[in-house]
Amino acid sequence: MSFPISFRTAAAGFGLALALGACQSNSKPDAARQGVPEPDASGLPAGLTPGTWRGVLTAQGQEIPFLFDVSTVDNGQKPTVTLRNGEERLKLDEITTAGDSTTIRLGVFDAALVVRADGEGKLKGSWVKYDGKEPYRVPFAATRGDQELFVGTAKNTSVFGDMKKGATFRTEFKGDDGETYPAVGVITQDSINTTKLTGTFLTTTGDYRYLAGNVVTKADGEHVMLSTFDGSHGFLFDGKLAKPGNINSISGDFYSGKSGHETWMAVLDGNAKLPDANTLTGMKPGQKKLAFKFPSIYEGGSISPTDPKYKGKVVVLQVLGSWCPNCMDETNFLAPWYEKNKSRGVEIIGLGYERTPDQKLASQKLLKMKQRMNVGYDLAVAGVANKDSASKSLPQLAGVLAFPTTIFLDKKGEVRKVHTGFSGPGTGKYYQEEIADFNKTVDMLLKE
């Protein structure tokens, strides 16, 4: 099935796709955090009582909802917050208080929810990202109680029965600048509570991870509403059905955080596919090996593919950033995979591109990721977090189009494959295909 736009046109739109479809940063890194409160002191947070909460981020005149659970350990003395995105559960246990303010650190990301009690069973505050060029704040509020993600949930959704086994959509996103890029949408309806939906969108450079939502009836018709909040991204997809009760055609808006906006159109198509992620970039003509020497995350050390440790081994290079959720999905796969397979003669090197030019601070961010995610393979500080920096740091490559990018080196140190993006566990069968392709490539190189 052909795409609504040509691959050449899609390639021209990579900048937009990278900014939202996958983990990409082209903003200038900050040298220091400005005007942002840091966690301080400790104690039980006021108002953060156990139970299920519905949180709402308010941006661009829209509400981006998500659910989270609050529980306690250590005889009720230590709170834990768990973000819920579809099947995903993200446990947050770095929670501190200062006065009436509570700071909930958002996992490996340099971000937090800074909140305070706002009456019985209510919270208000901000989602704060510390690693931007300027302080990044989005208003946040939450109410306690098990609730649907979206209000106005449709009552009669039997017409959406085709989505109970999962529906696939040929999708096109269009930015406010007119650039377009292709995607594949996958949406599934809950078999018991048919108002509930889960799904994601895959692009040539990654996926939008775990989305959840509802079928909603608005004044202008029926809508598919999906959202997610993983600590680094807050996404809202609002798609109106062209005809009531008919999922053949959906169109609407996609909102990302404070300012990101695109429109999208989706057509039901069980054969929808994306270009092969193994063909989007590669080595420049005449080049076979990568030549680099980057500082290790440990002071005084360095990492190069020519180091004795990697001689005669298959080496996988992971181009990543600790700020990138798609990269964390790949790391969640690679970390345990490495422990099981390193004895076979394979190594992994993580090349970190962080949102700071300060090597010490970048090392700290990557070290935190290494510790929290039990990463046993080597990590280096390769540069700052934008595709131009990554491309310049690896000049033998035709270009780095996305974070993450995975590069496979054979036992001679020659590049044999460059894989753009990563389809994470939120994509279902596409994740399984991703893992199968990874294992097939490594197995082939190990046999040589």
Automatic annotation (TrEMBL):
Residues 283-440 form the Thioredoxin domain. Residues 27-48 are annotated as: Disordered. PROSITE patterns: THIOREDOXIN_2 (PS51352). It comes from the Bacteria. Transmembrane segments: none annotated. This is TlpA family protein disulfide reductase. It comes from Hymenobacter cellulosivorans.
